[in-house]
């Protein structure tokens, strides 16, 4: 040693004892770390096993014990229409911007799943769960001021009465409080919907989406919301509130809840599958409505696009506040500029009036007398020069009376006051949207402008010169433009939008101006001709649509029978001998997901020259078939499904396609599966 005196446990130690002590410490720490890792791994595996057991029991319907309840009466209406920022942040109700379309032509959509329960007290201390939150959340999303359809747009498997919904969710909250200390009470979902669809089509789409939770017997309430008045007017969305505890309605008017919960659904896998199914439902709705845009549930990385940050395109409370504050500043600046321009115009008028009042007064009567005397004198001089000498007879005759001149000048049309900057004013008029034009007695006149949309000073100055030929020619051009724009608007389902009287956005003002133009000129022959033509076209479209729906319904019924029979032979009892029960269980969910696209014609399967061909409208369906083909006995299931549905070629163009080479082992008979297969991409 180097002269140091070392002691371990009261005993002297040399260098060998020191090395041994340090090595033992390292070994004990490593052993403790290994034991801790094994303990955590065992807990994780236990949770996974428990989740799998609960999922299997739920799918098998082994939870047969129910708790009946007759909830007390509560009000489901919210007093006042003001927004509550705390509820929006706490329940994840901050709505992202509208759907984003990527470079691949597919649009992503906003889908936010937020679980709220008693365990939230340990997380986000400022937003911990408080008693009665479920009812407050329900009242907030059902408030009338935010609904897209006034008094409607509500989808629920409990009731369409807000009071009944509030009573049921209050009973659910009380039931969860008697169970686990971290029990989940409700789930809040925010979902963006296609703005191209009508309100009725969005309501049908929301009903189809809620059918996903209906299959799991989960109580839910969903409502359509209109876009935020201060945000993008294309941001139509829906709010869904559900519970993970199974539910059923009793014949006596009460309700019953399952003893067990579907907590295994509150994971990433179920949310991912739900997003995929919602994307398929959105695309089906867009196809039925005849729109081109399509949606996908895949991430940008899966689609080969550059990743986007989580904050990109989303609105935080601070950013929303700054945007609204800037909008108010811009609005006040516009009002200030309008007032200044109006004050300047009034000042010019006052100056002209003062100049007219102060101008020297001229005696018009004296001017007329002087002009009359001058005319008489010139007439007398002309007579003397013409006759020379006057005869006696002529001298005896009275002189000819001078021409009578009236004091009243002949009435003439006053000249039209044309402003010197007429060309500039006409240019400003051409820049306006829907100028206030009106046909009167064969001419076009200017009416009252719309505030914040039309330049009132320009219209007031042009109104004084509106009878001038140049102004009339320009107004005729603007009239033709307005009639053409009105023809395009009348072809839409909502020609003048849904702008409320209190809405002051730019689009709302344009809709109001268009509606004002239509109402002001609705008796004019040009506008009447547009209305009559649109009515005839609408009637023809309705008849064509009815005939198309009738034919499509017949084809859908035929496809439905064949597909249902094929799925039953694979997944049902009739599939015995084709796919065993052990291999059938993992295949059943994917087979069921392919059933609806096959019925609707968005997917086609057929076998040709020993190859299984797949054609689909959506690449997501191609991914489904890839996963199914890669699973055990998946190729056999796809082959059987193609045999049963062979010939169901979809009438819709299928831009995505692939095929799989089927290599059978042994004879391919109706009693044996197609065997193993190797696949290759086209």
Automatic annotation (TrEMBL):
Keywords: Conjugation. Belongs to the MobA/MobL family. The lineage of its organism: Bacteria, Pseudomonadati, Pseudomonadota, Alphaproteobacteria, Sphingomonadales. Residues 119-307 form the MobA/MobL protein domain. The keyword Transcription does not apply. It comes from Sphingobium indicum. This is MobA/MobL protein domain-containing protein. The keyword Nucleotidyltransferase does not apply. Residues 298-327 are annotated as: Disordered.
């Amino acid at each position: 040693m180097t002269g140091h005196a070392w002691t371990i446990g009261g005993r002297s130690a040399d260098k060998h004892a020191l090395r041994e002590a340090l090595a033992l410490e390292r070994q004990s720490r490593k052993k403790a770390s290994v034991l801790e890792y094994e303990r955590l791994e065992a807990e994780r595996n236990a949770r996974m096993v428990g989740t799998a057991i609960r999922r299997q029991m739920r799918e098998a319907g082994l939870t047969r014990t129910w708790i009946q309840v007759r909830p007390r009466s509560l009000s489901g209406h919210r007093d006042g229409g003001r927004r509550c920022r705390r509820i929006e942040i706490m329940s994840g109700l901050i709505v992202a911007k509208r759907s984003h379309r990527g470079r691949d032509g597919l649009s992503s959509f906003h889908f936010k799943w937020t679980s709220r329960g008693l365990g939230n007290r340990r997380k986000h201390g400022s937003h911990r769960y408080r008693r009665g939150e479920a009812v407050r959340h329900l009242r907030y999303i059902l408030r009338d001021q935010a609904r897209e359809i006034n008094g409607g747009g509500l989808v629920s498997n409990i009731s369409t009465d807000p009071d009944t919904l509030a009573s049921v969710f209050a009973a659910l909250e009380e039931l969860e409080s008697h169970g686990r200390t971290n029990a989940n009470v409700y789930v809040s979902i925010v979902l963006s919907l296609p703005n191209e669809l009508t309100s009725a089509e969005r309501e049908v789409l929301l009903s189809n989406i809620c059918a996903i939770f209906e299959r799991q017997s989960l109580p839910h309430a969903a409502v359509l919301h209109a876009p935020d008045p201060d945000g993008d007017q294309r941001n139509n969305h829906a709010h869904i509130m559900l519970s993970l505890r199974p539910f059923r309605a009793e014949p006596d008017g009460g309700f019953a809840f399952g003893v067990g919960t579907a907590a295994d659904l509150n994971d990433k896998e179920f949310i991912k599958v739900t997003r995929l199914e919602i994307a398929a439902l959105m695309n089906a709705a867009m196809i039925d409505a005849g729109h081109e845009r399509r949606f996908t549930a895949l991430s940008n990385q899966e689609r080969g696009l550059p990743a986007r940050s989580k904050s990109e395109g989303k609105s935080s409370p601070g950013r929303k506040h700054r945007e609204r504050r800037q909008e108010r500043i811009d609005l006040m600046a516009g009002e200030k500029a309008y007032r200044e321009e109006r004050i300047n115009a009034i000042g010019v008028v006052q100056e002209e009036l003062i100049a007219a009042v102060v101008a020297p007064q001229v005696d018009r009567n004296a001017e007329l007398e002087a002009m009359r005397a001058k005319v008489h004198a010139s007439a007398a001089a002309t007579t003397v020069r013409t006759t020379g000498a006057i005869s006696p007879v002529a001298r005896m005759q009275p002189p000819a009376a001078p021409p009578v001149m009236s004091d009243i000048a002949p009435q003439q049309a006053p000249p039209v006051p044309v402003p010197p900057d007429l060309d500039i004013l006409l240019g400003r008029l051409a820049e306006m949207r829907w100028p206030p034009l009106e046909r009167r007695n064969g001419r076009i006149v200017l009416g009252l402008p719309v505030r914040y949309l039309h330049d009132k000073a320009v219209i007031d100055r042009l109104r004084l010169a509106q009878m001038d030929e140049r102004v009339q020619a320009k107004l005729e051009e603007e009239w033709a433009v307005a009639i053409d724009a009105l023809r395009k608007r009348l072809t839409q389902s909502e020609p003048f939008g849904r702008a409320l009287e209190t809405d002051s956005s730019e689009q709302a003002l344009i809709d109001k101006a268009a509606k004002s133009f239509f109402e002001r000129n609705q008796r004019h022959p040009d506008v009447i001709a547009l209305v009559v033509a649109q009515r005839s076209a609408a009637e023809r479209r309705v008849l064509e649509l009815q005939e198309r729906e009738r034919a499509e319904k017949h084809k859908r019924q035929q496809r439905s029978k064949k597909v249902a029979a094929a799925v039953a032979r694979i997944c049902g009892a009739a599939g015995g001998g084709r796919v065993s029960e052990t291999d059938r269980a993992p295949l059943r969910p994917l087979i069921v997901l392919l059933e609806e696209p096959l019925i609707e014609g968005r997917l086609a399967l057929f076998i040709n020259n020993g190859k299984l061909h797949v054609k689909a409208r959506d690449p997501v369906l191609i991914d489904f078939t890839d996963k199914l083909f890669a699973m055990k006995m998946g190729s056999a299931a796809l082959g059987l499904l193609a045999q049963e549905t062979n010939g169901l070629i979809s009438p819709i163009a299928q831009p995505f396609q692939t095929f799989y080479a089927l290599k059978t082992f042994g004879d391919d008979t109706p009693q044996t599966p197609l065997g193993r297969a190797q696949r290759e991409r086209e």
